[in-house]
Amino acid sequence: MLDKKVTLNTLRAKKGKEKIVAITAYDALMAKIFDGEVDVILVGDSLKMSFGGENETLRANLDEMIYHTKAVCAGTKYSFVLGDMPFGTYATKKMALTNALRYYKECNVDALKIEVDSNKIDVVKALCTEGIAVMAHIGLKPQFMRFEGGFKVKGKNEVEENELIESAIAMQEAGAFGILCEGIKASVAQKITQSVQIPTIGIGAGVHCDGQILVWSDAFGFFDAFKPKFVRQYCDGKDMLKNAVRNYANDVKNAVFPSDNESY
């Protein structure tokens, strides 16, 4: 359990020394449960899938992300809060600045995450120049799912490997405080981690990143439409909750809830 607020300096100091633990959350209730147990809470646009029941992240908008990030920030005291910039909000440098500044002003968020490649170096640099902490998301980028015809693992050949390493270094030079590596071959993610001085957080990128992140509904067994290879389930949350709901329903139907002690 953390006893003080995680900051950028906290995360930087963990590089190569102590693994960073990250999880997603979309509301104050879950944020309060995770707060202090993990280093980083990401308010991801994954909420469109795990929270909204959709099959992709693209329809998340800035108003939604700000709404959910405010809720997570309200429930967080110790963990570092990272907000996702949704699809279409950073297509140009000017657009990225306008939307990121609004996000930063309206939420007590610690940093923003954007899905990038070498074509977005100017965007990352512009945000960092304005004092906005940025985590660069490279590799498999869910916002590019339609463009790429699905979720494609990256780093499978030498060209992709070199591009990923070069992108990570370029993002570091542009001012990014960290790199999120998603869906990258483990050996390539290890080389990326070794090539930069900033921390890397992996999801489906092997054990050699400086930290790991999972979507909370995946990690705790609430989402079971499919199970990605990289997910480890730490409890069967869906069945536990279903059983609890059934017990509640039975108690109501059989008039054993509420009892005298639970009545005024």
Automatic annotation (TrEMBL):
Per the UniProt entry, the Enzyme Commission number(s) are: 2.1.2.11
Give the first-level EC class, as a single word: transferase
Give the UniProt record's GO annotations in the biological process aspect.
methylation; pantothenate biosynthetic process
Provide the cofactor note recorded for this chain's UniProt entry: Binds 1 Mg(2+) ion per subunit.
Q: Name one GO cellular component term.
A: cytoplasm
List required co-factors: Mg(2+)
| Pathway recorded for this protein | Cofactor biosynthesis; (R)-pantothenate biosynthesis; (R)-pantoate from 3-methyl-2-oxobutanoate: step 1/2
- Residues noted as binding Mg(2+) in the record, renumbered to the chain: 45, 84, 115
* Active site per the UniProt annotation: 182 (proton acceptor)
Its annotated compartments are:
Cytoplasm
What GO MF terms are annotated? Answer: 3-methyl-2-oxobutanoate hydroxymethyltransferase activity; magnesium ion binding; methyltransferase activity
User: Where, by residue number, does 3-methyl-2-oxobutanoate bind?
Assistant: 45-46, 84, 113
Q: How does it assemble?
A: Homodecamer; pentamer of dimers.
Reported function: Catalyzes the reversible reaction in which hydroxymethyl group from 5,10-methylenetetrahydrofolate is transferred onto alpha-ketoisovalerate to form ketopantoate.
By what name is this protein known? 3-methyl-2-oxobutanoate hydroxymethyltransferase
Q: Which organism is it from?
A: Helicobacter trogontum
